[in-house]
Amino acid sequence: MSKQRQGLLITGDAPVQFTFEGQRFSGLPGDTLASALLANGQWLQSRSFKYHRPRGPLSLSGQDANTLVQLGPEPNVLADRTPLSEGLSASGQNYVGSLAKDGDSRLGFFGRFMPVGFYYRAFYKPRGIWDRWEKVIRKKAGLGVLDTQREAGYHDKQYLFCDIAVVGAGPAGLAAALRAADAGASVLLIEQDPYIGGSLAWHRYDVQGGAAAAMLADLRRVEAHPRIRTLTDATCNAWFADHYLPVIQGTRLYKVRAKQTVLASGALEQHVVFHNNDLPGIVLCSAAERMLALYGITPGNKALVLAGNDQSCRSALTLADAGVQVSAVVDMRASPDDPALLQALSERAIRYIPGHTVYSARGSGSQGRISQAEIRPITAPGEVGNTAETIDCDLLCMSSGYMPAWQLPCQAGAKLSYQDEVAGFRLSGQAAGVHLAGSVNNIFTAEAVVKDGERAAAAALAALGYDVDVPESVSCALRPNYDWPMFAHPKGKEFVDFDEDLQLRDIVNATRMGYRDIQLVKRFSTVGMGPSQGRHSALPTARLVAKATGRTISETGVTTARPPFAPEKVAHNAGRVLHPYRQTPMHHRHLEAGAHMVPVGDWQRPAYYGQPDQARHCIESEAMHVRNAVGLIDVGTLGKIELRGPDAAELLNRLYTASFDNMEIGSTRYAIMTNEHGVVIDDGVACRLGETHFYITATTSGVTRVYRAMTQWNAQWRLDVDILNVTGAFAAVNLAGPLSHKVLAAAGTDVDISAAGFPYLAYREGQVAGISARLMRVGFVGELGYEIHVPARYGEALWDALIKAGRAFGIKPFGVDTQRLLRLEKGHLIVGQDTDGMSHPGELNLNWAVDRKKPFFVGQRSVAIMKREQTQRHLVAFELPAGSETPAEGLLVLEGAEVSGKITSCAYSPTLDKVIGLAWASSAHKKPGSQIVIKSAGGEPLTATVVKLPFYDKALSRQEIQA
Amino acid sequence: MKMLCCPLNGPRNVAEFAFGGEVREMPDPQTCSDREWAEYVFYPPNHAGVIAEWWLHVPSGYWFIAERNRSTDEVIRTYDPSEIYTTRVDFAAQEESKA
Amino acid sequence: MTYQASDFPGRSPVYRRWQDQPATPVGDTLAPLVTGGAGGAQCRLRDLSALPRGGLRGADTQALLQEAGYALPAQPNQLVQSGATLIARLSQTEHWVLDTDPAAPSDLPAVQAGRRVYTLPCQDSHAWLVLSGPARAEVMAKVCGVDMRPAAFAPGALAQTSVALVSAIVLHHQLEGEDVFSLLCDSAYADYLWGALLDAMAEFDDAAIGSGAPPDASA
């Protein structure tokens, strides 16, 4: 083993053992999986998507798809973003056999038979052929293996608040953070890499070297600044309106709320398009610099640099100074901008070859790594001469320039315009409060970048009301982009998009097929649709499409960069899954009694008491028990609203269909509410507690809407009434059955519960079992019954007292499913189950509950109009003889071949020994005695007889105390 | 997530609010034509540009009005409904002939 | 002596969450002992639901309370603490009075007929939980979109907001000498919220629940 690697991120020298493709390797603490593999000479790390070509790291910063590996159960993990850990086990993806010997690599040879848009075109005709091919293609498509049984583990979310969020901790971001925090603002600095400094940590900003390190030493002040919080290894995945930034760090998604945003997101170094430009060992210059500075890896023995700017020439100096033999700098330009570079190259005996490009590369060995590059003179944009020279190399570093990291700025509304004089895109027009700084703003010299960061921070401070001078825009004369770094080759394989294996001609051909719009070129060719989302393909594609369609590059543009910026897991979005639930005070009593609980909105309610496989038996026996003895149901989930004030009755008049002026104190009234469409949206019971005091119940699921309607209308009407939703403040039970009054008496009450003292539909207040209670004589289930409401804190004690007092009478709790059966027998409808979004009172036989003479109620006009119209449908009650099948709710009612309605409620009634139900049917069949035809689950027609409601207790005697 | 500035509670996540429809004037339900009533109930104008909307801050149960530009999704201002609903609204009793 | 919650007619909606801990009667309800503060923990969750509270609202509320000698917050969404009593102002016309000392409950003034003042059943409609400890703002940031760091949400601040997806009122005030958050939520959601807060607290060392009092304090 050679001397110990030294790198910014290497934190120790104890070897870390891991396996890749079953082979054992050793890395160092601080390595990523990719860097550890590179340190072991393992350049081949993946196979390309379409042609299964061998691939190795391109950017070494998680910005390309060349390092996607399978990590245990998790596919598509970026090896250059995966920290190495002891015992880590990974493998390549997308191969048949092994990564080194991929059976499908021959697909590459068939490449010319798979032109752009192949899938769309080849499997379109004849009809049906896609169905056959789909299975084969699906098997070949996609990367990695998903373990569908795997649990994602604990992920959560947290808000982070700051005055100014700075995205990117390169020189611009660091300078911006310091400027803002020094002025007093709280700053959140977000960095995707595990270190701060960005390119200052590895790039040579001057010919001599050393400037970057000095500058970074200054900027490190952020680490101890009390007003700067730095998140490293954290990816800002979007910019959303009002400076809402989702930032992923580890298993947490931070929801950042900033007042201003500085986007110092940097620029993405761009590749050069030539034949075989995708071989392992061909990297961006920045990747080679990262290998050296971050991980202490010598990237190659014999390097060649393909330059499009001075930055890449300086990379050559860095490589040479690190001991790499650099054969030559092949510069696509005629000369460097900085003449001092020529001298520096010459001092290191590096050949400088201006006006040339690498025209093709060859790979060799088991990893297919680059071994030779053929260079040719550039004769015109994209064209080369015939004189060729071949240079041996095992490393080719390239740079054709930079693309500003446009994703977040564009999400913030910025537009890209291409500027010919710098051969690059510029961003402008982003939302107020978003400030660009550094290379994303086309500023490239270190000094100017820092100034630009400070300028952006000052602008953000000024927007926050700080008294600061905002400098003029910072300018930078550097021109780092070479304008046409693309060289077609007769054999193709000049990759524009590495993710999708798209070559020069694929893009050009897409335009020839008529896809001129960049968005259509993307969808047809799939350019930019791979994991790196066009980071390296957007710029060359824009240039190619512009040229092929005779438009400017600005006009051509790039495709929309929607969030997320980097791939994110569903688990991050799901976070800690919160399912709010509401429980009544008696909740644990239900559990102790063996209730089968069901959700009703957020509420948890007992459906019945017993096992689900005995559901029908439980429901029927609970129902018979209520009919014959006494039952107790928790109705605490009912909505409850308190109305107090001189206009309490007037508000009810306006919102419900009945009139409440003449209601006596101590009485109750059934109330239905319609919306402006005249549709019944809720029902309940209104109790008059005093001249100016009403207590209203609403349905469990409807009370929120009812309360909102009341308060919204009264924000306009300005009636003198207080509206209070007291749903959670009261526990409530319904004590029902012929023995219920005996239980109530046994529990102890000071209310006169005699038949005369507490008649049907009356309201009383008093003590029950020593607890202050509101009592109503209502008959939802069709038996003598008392609805008892008490303050929530006493709910459990009330339940206990009634169960205890009822023991002598055989009291049993019953659930909401049982209540549904009982109310059906009594013919009471449930709004939302038996009604739909169009049901008006006439269709529901509720005209009796509508006072049409009062001045106004919401929906009154619509109800009046519909009353004049011929009603098309009706909610009818029907019966089937005992022994019939019980048609499921939702089954259709037919009128000949036409659908005329559906079943809304249906059950076997043990009390009546019949199948009973409610259904929508044609108005022609609303008369009792009519026959309606139900399409059964098996498809056969079932004929049911329409009957008059109620099914049970037509004499209305059961609601009274039995003699 | 967008923010909405509640006149009572200040700027909050829009998830804390419920939308209550456009602020509209109800035609007199006793005198308007069926057509006018149907237009009011079923055909809100839904035009592009600035409109006034009802919003409810759910945790405090507070209704307010927001002027929002539907084209740009920019909220111009929010205010208490009492700014425009200044007096008690009453409805006249129905005339016998109409009933 | 040792008490059972079920010996008392009044019950906190979350009493099962602390029923193994030392407790003391407050009126007709059993309450966990509230002494001990955060006790050095990063965060602690306690149940104060048994403690007395009430509310009034309506156009004449402010006048009525001022006549009764209460010092009221100047603006909605503020609270005033006077000794063990918190007066929270929720809107132009709504005030709540909460007592952290059960021995000295505030008697809200009686409402004369005709005055526009309406009582609120705060004791039953809302559970009262207290989150204390230095990590309390960070815990809240995991379940609430309002910035509750001291610089943005100082003692005396009140927020009506959404906590773990349910509506709640958050008060920043002093309790036994330390700054704490009181959370008032629909009593039917209290068990859910208790669980959601425990989950948010789990990452912190020494997260604690319940009374925080030594076991023999129940004697």
Task: Assess the beta-strand content of chain A as a share of residues.
Answer: 25-35%
Integer tally of domains of chain B? 1
Largest interface: A-C, 42 and 42 residues
Poorly predicted sequence stretches spanning 5 or more consecutive residues of chain A: none
For the record, the CATH architecture of chain B stands as 2-Layer Sandwich
Reading off the top of the CATH hierarchy, the class of the largest domain in chain A is best stated as Alpha Beta
Distance between the termini of chain B: 51 Å
Helices of chain A, by number, come to: 23
Largest sheet: spatial strand order of chain B = 3-4-5-6
Helix fraction of chain A by DSSP (H/I, runs of at least 4): 10-25%
Number of extended strands of chain A: 50
Structure description:
The complex is a heterotrimer of chains A (963), B (99) and C (219). Chain A has 963 residues and is an alpha+beta fold. Chain A folds into six domains: 8-140, Ubiquitin-like (UB roll), CATH 3.10.20.440; 156-268 and 403-463, FAD/NAD(P)-binding domain; 272-399, FAD/NAD(P)-binding domain (3-Layer(bba) Sandwich); 494-563, Orthogonal Bundle (Arc Repressor Mutant, subunit A), CATH 1.10.10.1100; 631-866, Gyrase A, domain 2, CATH 3.30.1360; 870-963, Elongation Factor Tu (Ef-tu), domain 3. Chain A contains 23 helices and 50 strands. In chain A, strand 36 and strand 37 (680-690) form a beta hairpin. Chain B is mainly beta and 99 residues long. The mean pLDDT of chain B is 92. Chain B has one domain (3-83): Folate-binding fold. Chain C is globular. Chain C has helices spanning 61-67, 122-125, 136-141, 190-201; strands spanning 23-26, 29-32, 44-47, 53-57, 78-82, 85-89, 94-99, 118-120, 126-132, 158-163, 166-175, 178-186, 208-209. The longest helix of chain C has 12 residues, at 190-201. Mean pLDDT of chain C is 89; it is low at 211-219. Helices cover 13% and strands 32% of the residues of chain C. Chain C has two domains: 15-51 and 125-209, Gyrase A, domain 2; 53-120. Chain B binds chain C through residues 1, 8-10, 12-13, 15-16, 57-60, 62, and chain C through 76-77, 90-91, 145-146, 159-162, 167-169.
